[in-house]
Amino acid sequence: MSSFGVADHPEMFERIIEAYGETHRHYHTAAHIDACLDEFDLVRSLARSGAEVEAALWFHDVIYDTRASNNELQSAEMASRFLASSGVSSSSCDRVYSHILATAHKGKPVDDDARLVVDIDLSILGQDELVYDQFERSVREEYKWVPSFLYRRKRTEILRGFLARESIYATEPFRQRYESAARTNLERAIRALE
Question: Model-level pTM greater than 0.85?
Answer without folding.
Answer: yes
